[in-house]
Amino acid sequence: MSAGRTSSGRVLRAGAAVAAALALAVAAGCTDKDAAGPGGTHTQGPSASYLTGEPGAAGRVLAVKIDNVSAARPATGLNDAAIVYAIEVEGGLSRLMAVFDAAHLPKTVGPVRSARETDLHLLSEYDKPALAFSGAQSKLLPVLRHSSALTAVTGTGDFFRQPGRHAPHNEFLHPAAAAAKGGPAKDIGLRFTSAVPAGGTPATSAKAKMPAARFTFTWTGSHYQVAMDGHTSPWTADNVIIQHVAVTESRYHSRTGFVPFSHTVGHGTAQILRDGRTYPATWDRPSEPSGTTYTLAGKPLPLHPGRTWIVLEP
Q1: 12 partner at 20 to 30 Å CA-CA among 30, 113, 209, 210?
Q2: 34: part of which helix (H) or strand (E)?
């Protein structure tokens, strides 16, 4: 940028100051070609959401545990979530954890179910989000309530039973008050760009599984349609991350049998789907407070701005 012609040193200095201010404004917009890798720039920070890469900073963060067995479907509110995690629970079944930006909440979310140790460790990379759940194992519940990593929300007047559904699949939540208790969104390691990254191969669908749960993601030309256990759902995603994790027994046992604990600290492999392409990636999270990075050939692999489903596949 040029300050234009001038015969005055004072004007030159003023022009330099304006140029410096503009440079800082561009930096604040978080355009970073190196971080985005070969596909182009990524968007995050004050001008865009840390959770979705879409315009406008994300607000406070609420995570809600969602039932995902056949008797609990259909759920509500998942297409308003910024991120949806699929996590293994007892019997090899899956449970969902939907992460919402408080500025983009559905009227109701549910059916709400109980929390697990995996949730506590996973949410430690956020900035003390609220976690809404229906209950927890007797020794885990006080740990959640006194945790410095999240704010536990359970048993408040915002939970209600929905008529026409059978317990325990009928507890729902009006999420606004719970979301107000969450900490502000922070950088959790995700990078975004609308430009399609180099590499990868065309793929119209991909599958992920747990011992007693299956997920299929089908590219429609604009997004991924989510199917669970062979049944199409109303849920969609702009990105899918199938993150391969180690699963061991939780420290918080159950009388009903083995309670899985999915390890999200460490590193491993992942499959990332975006724009009808699949990328073989690596994930890395060195500690619980650290964000999770996804890389391809040593460079951050950006996601398409929008909603992301992350399946923690054992």
Answers
A1: 30
A2: helix 33-36
Q: Which CATH architecture has domain 189-313?
A: 3-Layer(bba) Sandwich (3.50)
Contacts of 155 (CB under 8 A, 6+ apart): none
- Which residues have CB under 8 Å from 244's CB, separation 6+? 268, 269, 270, 313, 314
Q: Are 303 and 293 in contact (CB under 8 A)?
A: no
Which residues are bridge partners to 99 per DSSP?
A: 63, 83
Domain ranges for the chain, please list them.
Answer: 61-179, 189-313
Contact, 144 vs 122, CB < 8 A? Answer: no
Residues 6+ apart with CB under 8 A from 213: 68, 86, 88, 92, 93, 94, 228, 229
Could you read off the pLDDT of 105-116 as tens digits, one per residue? Answer: 999 999 999 999
The band of 46, judged by pLDDT with boundaries at 50, 70 and 90, is: low
What is the CATH topology of the domain spanning 61-179? YerB-like fold (3.50.90)
189-313 and 61-179 share a CATH fold? yes
User: Is there a contact between 94 and 68 (Cβ–Cβ < 8 Å)?
Assistant: yes
SS (HEC) of 209-242: EECCEEEEEEECCCCEEEEECCEEEEEEECEEEE
Asked if residue 93 has pLDDT above 90, the reply is: yes
